[in-house]
Specification:
By secondary structure, the chain is an alpha/beta fold. The chain is built from six helices and seven strands. The chain has a seven-stranded mixed beta sheet with strand order 3-2-1-4-5-7-6. α1 runs antiparallel to α2 and α2 packs across α3.
Length: 216
């Protein structure tokens, strides 16, 4: 496979993403945890530079929040990006962030429940709820099902553990899809909620590259 030349370095991408505004009044029940610019740049650089799955592709970002992954994908040369979220307040911030980097025409923001998404794209990148909150138990599988219906290649971020890996292997196999790679990454979650006592919380996540059986 011949990869296109990367447009910007990981470090330069991180610098661009540092300019973005983050969540206002995030909702713990929606698990609206920010990915730091460093974490987002690492994830996106793996997708772009290791697998060539961003440049020239139509990207869907499920649960896009304030748009850090969508905007990063646009900066890395995506053909088009669609960011989907249920929270209009965060989508308004995402729109401002895109305007700040002159990317307003590169990204389409959709306010909707993820189950209502009906567009087929080249690649889905998503950071679904981990299911830590009782209300969100099982939402990671809801996101995965819709992603598997919506693109042939999915990148999905999940909390790292052997138990979770086995559960996701079994679940994805049941959907007639397969895991091509599991990439362990350490990222940080910034202080956001009243129950956060530290400025940064390092966590280990797995980035799953999943191949769907769905075709256009």
């Amino acid at each position: 496979m011949t990869f296109q030349k990367k447009l910007i370095s990981r470090k330069k991408l991180e610098i661009f993403l540092q300019k973005l505004k983050t969540f206002i009044d995030p909702k713990p029940e929606l698990e609206q945890y920010s990915i730091t610019p460093r974490g987002a740049s690492i994830i996106l650089s793996i997708i772009s530079n290791t697998y060539d799955d961003i440049q020239g592709k139509v990207i869907g970002d499920f649960g896009c929040g304030t748009g850090i992954l969508s905007i990063g994908a646009a900066l890395l040369g995506a053909k088009a990006v669609i960011g989907v979220d249920i929270d209009q307040k965060q989508l308004d911030i995402a729109t401002q962030n895109a305007e700040e980097l002159d990317l307003i025409d590169a990204i389409k923001w959709l306010r909707m429940d993820i189950n209502d998404f009906s567009i087929f794209v080249d690649v889905i990148i998503q950071n679904p709820p981990f299911g830590i909150q009782q209300k969100d138990r099982g939402m990671d599988t809801v996101f995965l099902k819709k992603a598997l219906e919506s693109a042939p290649i999915i990148y999905s971020i999940h909390k790292s553990s052997e138990k979770n890996q086995q559960f996701l292997r079994d679940f994805i196999k049941q959907q007639n899809a397969f895991i091509d790679a599991i990439i362990p990454i350490q990222i940080s979650i910034p202080q956001q909620f009243h129950f956060h006592k530290k400025k940064q919380y390092p966590i280990y996540v797995d980035l799953y590259r999943i191949i769907s059986s769905k075709k256009i």
